[in-house]
Write a structure and sequence with these properties.
Two copies of one chain form a homodimer. With 140 residues, chain A is mainly alpha-helical. Chain A is built from five helices and two strands. Chain A has a domain of 72 residues: Multidrug-efflux Transporter Regulator, Chain: A, Domain 2 (Orthogonal Bundle), CATH 1.10.1660. The structure holds a DNA duplex (30 and 30 nucleotides).
Chain lengths: 140, 140
DNA sequence: CTATGAAGTAGAGCGAGGTCTAGATCAAGT
DNA sequence: ACTTGATCTAGACCTCGCTCTACTTCATAG
């Protein structure tokens, strides 16, 4: 049988920080805030030992945060997952709602981009033809 | 001659708030922070009277803010414009740098979107085939 | 044994970006 | 004159998302 071993590689907080891009401080903060799914294991000396599964979860957290999900909602999601099976519909709903927002955000940014592109083109053109004055009004 | 009248329609702060989507508070705050190009005109009674030009500038500010430009940078831009002609190259550079960031942001969001889309599809599939257990691990 | 450096805790502090309060004033309608 | 509602100012206050401080403890190399 292909033993599906959990390959618990016992990563230190520093390692996890490097892998996730979160600071050591942020990792402890996330834990305090209940943003993790399970309690992190500890060595006899009290140090945190993260597993690959923990890291996977954190990587998802990073993506959700990066796309603007507030910590409170991330926490809610973690709670759902922690609570186990039976609430998949709610999880899906949460993710779906977030996805909508991300898409709206992308559209908004694309519009900003086009406004900015237009502005820069006005300046670029102006510079190309020399200082012709009359440009210093806010609209231009 | 086509008199290019500045059609100064004397808008109240409330009107401008409605038109720009900024709150009245935010408008006063922006002014205090030096984010406006010129000083806003006042009535004899001391109330602000905005012109269309002011609104145009504010609309640009809104777009820049919406796309993540920090107030400090917006202030810098306002200063350049206020200072008049001769610094167009610097203005262009500032806008250009921002545009790069907006594009990077869009790319990052698109990646987040695809991660989230994958996650939701996992849940959706799971729900479609009934609660098959074994899904409640953070990776799924 | 000691030095060094990573990690532990609890809690204070910070920067950004507004928001809100208090109390006064202005402007318009009746 | 009176009421109502928008504005005025200065400055206090708030939320978010970490970050940093202070001080202690653990682990490892020399």
């Amino acid at each position: 049988m292909a033993t599906t071993e959990p390959r618990a590689q016992a990563l230190s907080i520093g390692e996890v920080a490097r892998r996730t891009g979160l600071s050591v401080h942020a990792l402890r903060f996330y834990e305090r805030e209940g943003l993790l799914v399970g309690p992190v294991q500890r060595t006899t000396g009290g140090r945190r030992r993260y597993t690959e599964v923990d890291v996977d979860w954190l990587l998802i957290c990073v993506k959700l945060r990066e796309s603007g999900m507030p910590l409170a909602e991330l926490k809610r999601f973690a709670e759902l997952v922690r609570h186990g099976p039976g609430n998949e519909a709610e999880r899906l709903q949460l993710l779906d709602a977030h996805q909508q927002r991300v898409e709206a955000q992308i559209r908004a940014l694309e519009e900003c981009r086009s406004v900015i592109a237009w502005k820069t083109s006005v300046y670029a053109e102006h510079l190309a033809r020399g200082e012709a004055g009359g440009l210093w009004d806010p609209t231009a």
